[in-house]
Amino acid sequence: MGKEPFDYSLDFKHTDFRKQPELYRVGKGEQGVLLVEPYKSEILPHWRFKTPDIARKSAETIYGLFLEYKKNGDFIGMDMARKFLQMGYTRARRYANHRTGQKYDGPVPDDQKGRSGAHGREQLPRDEDPVKAESARIFYGMYLKVREDEAYRQQKKYWQKTLG
Questions:
Q1: Taken in order 120, 124, 126, 132, is the CA torsion positive or negative?
Q2: Any idea where the domains of the chain sit in the sequence?
Q3: Rg (CA), the chain
Q4: Engineered SS bond to 135: which of 55, 74, 112, 116, CB 3.0-4.6 Å?
Q5: pLDDT tens digits for range 2-16
Q6: DSSP state letter for 51
Q7: For residue 149, how far is the Cα from the chain centroid?
Q8: Do you find a cis peptide bond into 21, omega within 30 degrees of 0?
Q9: In whole angstroms, how far apart are CA 133 and each of 30, 46, 124, 137, 140?
Q10: Which of 82, 92, 8, 87 has its CA nearest to residue 49?
């Protein structure tokens, strides 16, 4: 099978991936992080990065959930915790670079909504916010800890080989 792309055509509102794990695809990066239930609802309430103290508590809590999923042999939970930690890093980094969180000038063209990228728009100037940069570093450190976890790596490799 190999690496299958994340399947955005699924009925995410009515799919419980704990009951139907065979439908889950790892995808790339953070794909599906805000779609895959019940994991999204379990992890999202803990995801915060406004200050380094808040980010540290958030990253530690999400890492604790990762360890719980790992203990239960729940690869999807482990991968979703990894995605939330990665998203904590990328979002905090975006706010560190752009105080408003807006990376590009102007609205996304209607035919490009839901896709990432500039779509012909100019990138706004960067202005470093050291508080958000520290929040990003906290999440990145925890993300690396999860990404390099040997059990996670083995299960991810197996998952991608057998299910996609």
A1: negative
A2: 12-104+124-162
A3: 17
A4: 55
A5: 456 788 899 999 999
A6: S
A7: 17
A8: no
A9: 19, 19, 18, 6, 10
A10: 92
pTM above 0.90, yes or no: no
Q: CB of 39 within 8 A of CB of 50?
A: no
Residue-wise pLDDT for 73-111, tens only, equals 999 999 999 999 999 999 898 878 765 555 554 555 665
Residue 31: CB atoms within 10 Å = 16
For 49, the token pair is 């990065």
At 111 the three-state DSSP class reads helix
How far is Cα 132 from Cα 96, in angstroms, rounded to an integer? Answer: 5
Instruction: Give the CA angle between residues 40, 42, 46 to the nearest 5°.
Output: 95
